[in-house]
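Q: Predict the assembly, please.
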Amino acid sequence: MAAIKWGAKRRLSIALLALQVLLTPFLVAAVLPEDRLDALYHSYTGGGVEVNGPSILWRKMFGGKSSLTANYYVDAISSASIDAVSSASPYKEKRIEKSVGGDFLLNKTIMSLNYTTSDENDFNAKTASFNLSQDMFGDLTTVSMGYVRGWDQIGKNGDPIFAETANRQSYRIGISQILTRDLVMALNFETVTDEGFLNNPYRSVRYLDATSATGYSFESEVYPRTHTSNAVALHTRYHLPYRASVLGEYRYFTDSWGVRSNNVALGYTHPYRDNWMFDVRYRYYKQGDADFYSDLFPYRQSQNFLARDKELSRFNNQTVGLSISYEIKPKDWAFVDRGSLNLSYDHIRFRYDNFRDITQSGASAGLEPLYHFSADVFQLYLSLWY
Amino acid sequence: MRSVCFLLLAVSACGCDVKPWVKPYERSHLADPIMQFSRDPVSTAYINHVYEAREGARGAEGSQGGGCGCN
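A: Predicted assembly structure:
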């Protein structure tokens, strides 16, 4: 039985998760990241979907000039999402992602190479990346640039003949700037291009059909085979007069499918005594729909490209989050300098403007209530520096 | 991309003459862990992935390349 899986775009983005893990540490200028071990358990529950699993990150410096890192990540997915219950069936699956990388320091330059694989029963992705980071202007400025290349193989459960591919490239450039002794900012720009099979082999769109008892029928979605997007983001951190900091972020996104989005985020970090750290945050996201998106098409094959993916609809979401961190200072742990135990919770509310909940019975086609749902995201992790 | 490389090299070549207006001994606040854009890379990458899987937008979320010049 066909099952609605994670959308292709979502699965294809997964490899970038590992690259963020491996590249994010470059927040300190021209210094390799500290040796550390992180063990994280994550849990997402919302919209009929449950995703949980571990993520283990290991990083070790060698010879003072190079640092190797490895990440093992698992998504155990149990989905009865609105996509699944609307036109297919609930499913369970597991995705395993493995990443290795190396960072090499030469004077004020850090060069990074990373390789990631992501495997599930109907989708395999391989991603390689190269990143260069250079300090300048008395270490007040850091300029970085990167290139990512991905190769994906898409299958379809129940259809052994189905075999598609997609390739992607990403170009990114960023600048981080110390503005004052209390203020730092980072500006990042990224272009991503995809080519190949970009839609979901399981997902359908619906169209008006007077011969159907519900008033509508389903047909397979059809996406363009190319996709190019641009995103620019500004991040700032400001140290308050007392020991605390505020975070501000903004991102603007646009793509060749007609999607435009903006998101802003605010955060506040407050240490308490010697061992505690508290973070609170708020995030707002809003996007417009893709040119070929419709909740209900007027008739079968009414246009070249057809999408009813709610991630391509017009919607917004809001997040409130809290993190608590407790620093451990072991005195008799032979190989551990320090550690931290962390708990993080985020509550996200999604509200869709033109994606309707067709699981609600009684309404005429196209007049069903608009879909909305809430999600709870937990993270519990232990970090050790050695 | 080629022009970006050229620009990066050009800026890098002239960067050594610029005097830092925030001296190394004035960077104690910037060196504080509370000033990092991401203290925990595993956690940051995960939450970015949560959003990217459910939103149309993608990219430019990582703040790699950010520097505090503290060392």
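DSSP finds three helices and no strands in chain B. The CA atoms of residues 56 and 68 of chain B lie 31 Å apart.
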